[in-house]
Specification:
Blueprint (H helix, E strand, L loop, with lengths): L12 H11 L7 E4 L9 H16 L3 E6 L9 H14 L7 E3 L4 H13 L3 E4 L3 H7 L17 H13 L8 E4 L14 E5 L13 E3 L1 H11 L4 E5 L6 H10 L7 E5 L11 H9 L14 H7 L3 H11 L10 H12 L5 E2 L1 E2 L2 E6 L7 E7 L9 E7 L1 E5 L19 E4 L4 E9 L5 E9 L17 E2 L2 E2 L4 E8 L23 E9 L11 E4 L3 E5 L9 E7 L13
Parallel strand pairs: 1-2, 2-3, 8-9, 10-23, 12-18, 16-19, 21-25
Antiparallel strand pairs: 4-5, 5-6, 6-7, 11-22, 12-15, 13-14, 15-20, 16-17, 17-18, 21-22, 23-24, 24-25
Bound molecules: adenosine-5'-triphosphate and magnesium ion (MG).
Length: 561
């Protein structure tokens, strides 16, 4: 189908459809739903679906249900149910009183399955699974009818009741819809509606040993809840004829309609729960909330505010054409959200001692740093200055190239909010590594102000006073995968980056950051946006890099210039 293009910002083909239904009186109240399967944490793709479903409901004065599609007890866990609710709320949406589970409808679904048996539209098939698969045919060859397709209604009802009663082992038989084994749409070749699973369900416990398939549960759940627009991703397009077939044959209370949009795909990112589950299970990441994970829990721990995600999703838009979004678009949305608000602080990632030889021993003084250059209302904070400071190793070069304006022997620079300092000599360890810079300062430049003679410097550096700098661990993240299309060849795990996390254990931050609340974003001046991680303590805080200061395709490993 062709892409429907709309010009109005904030509009898309789904919203156009909803608007038309509202205008024509086909939908009195717009009801949508977000239907996660609780078998993993929500990821960025789900955020797109959440923003769309909850967003449409909000904009049209309707409601959006949160419905757990909990039809497979083997893979589903309470842990995931709780995480999903937490993440939807964090993203800024709420289902109100409309929290549902497909399992709420198991009894009703069972009765509707019997209804299909009675109308001759479903039958129990005990063909062994591999033979059943062979009989299904292929995309180019029609399938074959099962020999059990023509059982009597009575026999089918009895068998289905025996399935429910637990008389059969897993896989012994299934309930199938009787549609068309020659259909060009594989989903219509007598699809399975119920299978036997002797497993304890997080909500229904051991009440059931047969469970409806996604296809049988989904549309009927939509109908029970009075969903007007059942919005899902394009891979369900081929399921729509089955969705409609079932709705047409069952005495359901409403006739919902399904609409499909393109799923979110991003460069350097995998948005497949199967692969994300593998990353967690096999210990490639520290958990579902590892800051490198594209999960909402990971993104949040990395310090990304929900506003940035909602803005990102809005920028991506909703279309029917599949595409891959550059991960830098997310980074840009994050910077745009953080820049106006994040307080500025100083941190030194890879410290190098700077000693001011003409600054009196034992003296310290208090200077004033501003918290946000564009927002005076954020105020100022005191920072201390002393004879011994830390600067970034990267801000010094002993033998600099021509355009290197920062510290090198003989060079003068400004220390932000501090003084002008000139590097006089270099102190080295026996192995030749530079361990300290000896400098002089100009007392007439207090506060980082230009000296009376109008002398100019070409660089302003961030720094910390050694006396009260707080030791910290800083974690720098980059892409989890080392190629733009990690999933393209079906072997994403082979493209896991080996350097997606760099841990700096010898960093320092200013005292104001020792008690930084977990998750609250700050900008480390000249370095990037960071937030405190729950792994830290006030004596030794841990910070995650949320995003660097600027777009840089290469990994930003050194502070900004
Ligand atoms: P996966 O395919 O990774 O296992 P899923 O689609 O099975 O994910 P569900 O929990 O069933 O995960 O998804 C809930 C909803 O989120 C569905 O409506 C699905 O269409 C939508 N969704 C899942 N992935 C994406 C994505 N990448 N972009 C947009 N929507 C998505
Ligand atoms: Mg799914």
């Amino acid at each position: 189908m062709a892409d429907t293009t709309t010009t109005e910002p904030g509009r898309d083909f789904i919203r156009d459809i909803v608007q038309a239904d509202v205008d024509a009186g086909r939908a009195q109240v717009v009801v949508t739903r977000f239907p996660p399967e609780p078998n993993g944490f929500l990821h960025l793709g789900h955020a797109k679906s959440i923003c769309l479903n909850f967003g449409v409901a909000q904009e049209f004065g309707g409601r959006c249900h949160l419905r757990f599609d909990d039809t497979n007890p083997v893979k589903e866990e309470q842990l995931f149910i709780d995480a999903i609710q937490r993440d939807v709320e964090w993203l800024g949406f709420h289902w109100g009183e409309h929290l549902y589970h497909a399992s709420d409808y198991f009894e009703q679904l069972y009765r509707w399955a019997e209804h299909l048996i009675r109308s001759g539209d479903a039958y129990v098939d005990d063909t062994p699974p591999d033979r059943m698969r062979a009989q299904r045919g292929t995309l180019t060859e029609p399938g074959q009818n099962s020999p059990h397709r023509y059982r009597s209604v009575e026999e089918n009802l009895a068998l289905f009741q025996d399935m429910r009663a637990g008389k059969f082992a897993n896989g012994a038989c299934v309930l199938r819809a009787k549609i068309d084994m020659a259909s060009g749409n594989m989903n219509l070749r007598d699809p399975v509606l119920y299978r036997i699973l002797h497993a304890t369900h997080p909500r229904t416990g051991d009440a059931w040993c047969i469970y409806p398939t996604y296809d049988f549960a989904h549309g009927q759940s939509d109908a029970i809840e009075g969903i007007t627009h059942s919005v899902c991703t394009l891979e369900f397009e081929d399921h729509k004829p089955l969705y409609d077939w079932l709705i047409a044959r069952l005495p359901v209370p409403a006739r919902p309609r399904q609409y499909e949009f393109a799923r979110l795909n991003m460069t350097y990112t995998v948005l497949s729960k199967r692969i994300l589950t593998g990353l967690v299970r096999d210990g490639h990441v520290s958990g579902w909330d590892d800051p490198r994970m594209p999960t909402l829990a990971g993104i949040r721990r990395r310090g990304v505010p929900a506003t940035a995600l909602r803005d990102f999703v809005a920028r991506v838009g909703v279309a029917r054409a599949n595409s891959v979004v550059d991960v830098q678009m997310l980074d840009a949305a994050i910077r745009d959200a953080l820049n106006p608000t994040a307080p500025r602080r100083m941190a030194v990632l890879r410290p190098l001692k700077l000693i001011i030889d003409n600054y009196p021993e034992g003296r310290t003084e208090t200077l004033e740093a501003i918290d946000h250059p564009d927002d005076p209302s954020q105020g100022t904070r005191p920072i201390s200055f002393g004879r011994e400071l830390y600067v970034e190793q990267d801000d010094f070069m002993e033998n600099p190239p021509k355009k290197f304006y920062r510290l090198s022997p003989g060079k003068e620079v400004r220390l932000r909010y501090g003084y002008y300092v000139t590097c006089q000599s270099v102190e080295k360890a026996p192995d030749g590594t530079v361990v300290a810079l000896h400098c002089t300062y100009d007392p007439q430049t207090r506060g980082g102000n230009a000296p009376p003679d109008g002398r100019k410097v070409q660089a302003t550096l961030h720094w910390l006073a050694a006396a009260d700098a707080v030791p910290a661990e800083i974690r720098l993240y980059s892409h989890l995968f080392d190629r733009p299309d990690p999933g393209a060849d079906g072997d994403a795990m082979a493209h896991l980056a080996t350097d997606s996390m760099e841990v700096l254990t010898g960093a320092f931050v200013e005292p104001a950051l020792a008690a930084a609340p977990v998750g609250t974003p700050v900008q480390f001046e000249r370095v990037g946006y960071f937030c405190a991680d729950p792994d830290g303590t006030p004596a030794r805080p841990v910070f995650n890099r949320t995003v660097g200061l600027r777009d840089s395709f290469a990994k930003v490993k050194t502070p900004g210039r």
